[in-house]
Amino acid sequence: MAAARKNRKSSKNKRTKRFLAIFFLIAAAAVILIFTNGYFFKANNIIINENNRYSYEQILQASGIVPGGELYGINIKQARTNIKEILTYTDSVKITQRPPSTLKIDITTEDGLFGIMLGGDYYIISENMRVVEKIKVVGSGIYNFAPPENIITFATHDIQKCYLGEKMEFSDNDIYDFLKEMAKFQRENKNMHPDMPKISSIDITDKFRVTMNYEDRFLVKFGIFENISPKILNSYEVINRLPDYAGGLIDMIDGKAASFTFHEDILMLYGADT
């Protein structure tokens, strides 16, 4: 009997110890869980790559992400959409969650290259033909409006779609191809002809009578829109042979020989049937 009571007592002690061990294990797990929720898996460390167009604060605010929020509770897809819709020069967004508490945002942006006046608004378009900015012009006066620096204004009647943040569409694909060739020319020759006047505007309302304005100093008539890159290089050769004070009309329509006519104010000629 004594041995039986001793065995029952020993068994009870083992159960008690096992219970206490499980209790303390659960308690420890709860403490760890509370500690983890309080200090880990929170977006406490938000890293944003340096960008020459948008600041850290602009990107963070546009994303809608709240510092200190649940790291894995963030809607990454919505944050990317927010950034691209608000910061319209943004080309791509990558958001990475790194436990225990780091969130990294990398964005790339595009530069504006072209511009077009539609109604009372001026739209800036990137090299990839995406509309990256819309400037309200009506209030400040259309005729007094000066496009941003290094933006080439173009005129055409073939716009089919022009919405901020989306790619521009044309009813005539030739216009799209022309502008893409111009973009490629600008990219490849950006620093090759620093002394040449820059192209300020292009009139392609008639693609068989393309006209370009070089810094309000030269008006160049190219004729048909095809092979525009070598034609621009040829126009540089013509300008190189002219005196520094010269300005006027350069006619290259026949594609063989260029003629130059001095004119004090080429803006009077721009868009005219000269």
Strand content: 25-35%
- Sheet with the most strands, sense and barrel status: 9 strands, mixed
Radius of gyration: 33 Å
Number of strands: 14
Helix content: 25-40%
Low-pLDDT parts are none
Average pLDDT reading: 85
Class per helix and strand makeup: alpha/beta
The rounded distance between the terminal residues' Cα atoms is: 126 Å
Determine the oligomeric state from the structure. single chain
CATH class of one domain: Alpha Beta
From the 3D structure, determine the CATH topology of one domain.
Ubiquitin-like (UB roll)
Describe it for me?
31% of the residues lie in helices and 27% in strands. The longest helix has 38 residues, at 2-39. With 274 residues, the protein is α/β, with parallel strands linked by helices. It contains five helices and 14 strands. The model has no long low-confidence stretch (mean pLDDT 85). The strands form three sheets. Strands 6-5-4-7-10-11-12-13-14 form a nine-stranded mixed β-sheet, with helices on one face. Strands 1-3-2 form a three-stranded mixed β-sheet, covered by helices on one side. Among the domains are: 15-109, membrane protein fhac (Ubiquitin-like (UB roll), Roll); 189-274, no CATH class. It has helices spanning 2-39, 56-63, 76-86, 173-188, 228-240; strands at residues 45-48, 90-98, 102-109, 112-118, 121-126, 131-136, 152-155, 159-161, 169-170, 199-203, 210-214, 218-223, 248-251, 259-262. The protein is elongated, with a radius of gyration of 33 Å.
